[in-house]
Amino acid sequence: MLIGRAQGRKEHIKQLRKIKDWCTEYNILFKINTVVNTYNKDENMSEEIIQLNPIRWKVFQCLLLEGENVGPQALRNAEKFYIDDDTFKEFLDRHREVPCLVPESNLQMQNSYLILDEYMRFLDCRKGSKIPSKSILDVGVTEALKFSGFDDAMFKKRGGIYKWTKEADKFSW
What we know:
This protein has helices at residues 12-25, 46-52, 85-94, 106-109, 136-139, 141-145, 152-157, and strands at residues 31-36, 56-61, 101-104, 121-124, 131-135. The chain is α/β, with parallel strands linked by helices.
């Protein structure tokens, strides 16, 4: 493998099964995230994902943000990983039978997450780059949110609200 947390490992699926078993043992919901990019865009992961049976399989299109992962201010350059909308759709079509699949294109993702930096500023990514708000420590959350670019409707549309706890055990701590 050239990318990801399993980089260099030959037993990636075996490791995921172990993690799934731990989640089951400790009553934790199991979710998998995948960023589709130039290195995995042609793969078919359906069989493995169906066997692992996560509660959600979030499939993201590689998103480029000026200053975050592209441009002179970026710590890492992700341009070589970028795929276009048609390529992302092909990947999704190949995996359409996976029941837990939750796709997130760049359009859906870009403003439907709240992102805080190390200075407790929301980052507005509407224009393809990060524009920070004033710090929530200085102006409060309500004021800073006004400059976050957060799209509540897209958050709901992309499935941002979902069951993330096991209801029966919600207050068992």
